[in-house]
Structures are given as C-alpha cells and as structure tokens.
UniProtKB/TrEMBL annotation:
(6R)-10-formyltetrahydrofolate binds at residues 64, 89-92, 106. InterPro entries: Formyl_transf_N, Formyl_transf_N_sf, GART. N(1)-(5-phospho-beta-D-ribosyl)glycinamide binds at residues 11-13. The active site is at 108 (proton donor). This is Phosphoribosylglycinamide formyltransferase.
Length: 203
C-alpha cells in the first residue's frame, strides 16, 4: 500500500512511520512526504531516509480548495493510495476528506474524544486528569473526529508541566502510529458503522 505522509513540523511521527515501513514485513511503503511549510524539520528527515518530498505552501493558493487540489496532484503523481497526517496543522476541505474517506488517518495528542483541538497537554493538566495520551483515527470532516483505530495512554505525574507531559505523549505516538498503520494496511482493522473493528491481533 503506497502511503503519503503530510507534515508541517519536526516530523517525528513521520520518521516513526518511515522506520516501521522499512521493516520487511510491513504492509505499506512511504511514497512521498508533503509539507505545507518549506522550513519543516521533517523534510530533512524524509530526505535522509531517501523518501521523496514536496513542499506545497498554503500561502501560495487563493483558497483551501486550490491548496488541497495541489496536494492531491502531488499525491497522485506519487501513486499514493493512503494518507497519514502527522503533525499536519491544516484543516482539510470537505472535498478532500471525502475523496480520502477511510483512506486517511491522523494522530492527535490526546485520548479522544477528550481534548480535541490544540494545547491538549496544558488542558489535560488543567483538567486534572490522571491519564492522558494519543489517538490514531480515520479522518472525518469535523476536526479530530472519526473512528478510532488505536490509543496509547500515559500517566500524568504531579511533577508534569505541558512540556514533560507532551514528551511522554510523543513517545506513545511513536508507538501507536506504526501499529495503527500496520493494522489498517494489512486489512485487520476496518471501519464498520463509524467504528473500527479489529480482527484478532493474535497477541
Ligand atoms: C506533536 O505535538 C504531536 O503530538 C502532534 O503533532 C506535533 C508534531 O509532531 N501529532 P511531529 O513531531 O511533527 O510528528
């Protein structure tokens, strides 16, 4: 399965997916990494891993539809069949989300449906939750909505601030994103009635 990864920043989740996809038995390959920001640190990581990259600057387009169409053009040029959003900080149009229905997943640094949106770690601390974490889900038009594939929970420590909690959550992200992609790419996880059903993982 040919994967396109969309990033905006450091790309540590992209790097985790690229590493996992390099394993012999992984049911997917990364065809291209696309960033909406030319300065994204993830671009250098992708190039170092020998992955094709592209920059599509959202500021160069008159509207979201034109930007999304340019992304689609690059994805098509690389034969992409499935999209992974990894630290991608743009809301996609309904048309794009529809075109990639059940073929696009995202990672969110919270245990959805809790803490959709931004600043999830400070909000978790402010809410006094004892567990926080990350969620991989199929993308739907509503921000951070969609059928959940995998989650990873981490404890919130009394000593935590947003930075220490974010770092612990990022570690969980790097574990669950490759797992989630493996489950979906192998066909073991699929959407039924807006829920993800997972065949026995045999573990
Ligand atoms: C991180 O905050 C992560 O939790 C979220 O996007 C941000 C950047 O991640 N998914 P990455 O290092 O660019 O993958």
């Amino acid at each position: 399965l040919r994967i396109g990864i969309l990033i905006s920043g450091g790309g540590s989740n992209m790097a985790a997916l690229v590493k996992a996809a390099g394993e012999a038995d992984f049911p997917a390959e990364v065809a291209v990494v696309v960033s909406n920001r030319a300065g994204a640190g993830g671009l250098a990581k992708a190039e170092a891993a020998g992955i094709a990259t592209a920059v599509i600057d959202h500021k160069a387009f008159p509207d979201r539809e034109a930007f999304d169409a340019a992304i689609d053009e690059t994805l098509a040029a690389h034969g992409v069949e499935f999209v992974c959003l990894a630290g991608f900080m743009r809301l996609l149009t309904e048309g794009f989300v529809t075109r990639w229905h059940n073929r696009m997943i995202n990672i969110h640094p919270a245990l959805l449906p809790l803490f959709k949106g931004l600043n999830t770690h400070q909000r978790a601390l402010d809410a006094g939750v004892k567990f926080h974490g990350a969620t991989v889900h199929f993308v739907r038009f509503g921000m951070d909505e969609g059928p959940i594939i995998a989650q990873g929970a981490v404890p919130v420590l009394a000593s935590d601030d947003a930075a220490t909690l974010a770092a612990r959550v990022l570690g969980a992200e790097h574990r669950i994103y490759p797992l989630a992609l493996r489950l979906v790419a192998s066909g073991r996880a699929r959407v039924e009635g807006e829920k993800v059903v997972c065949e026995d993982m045999g573990e």
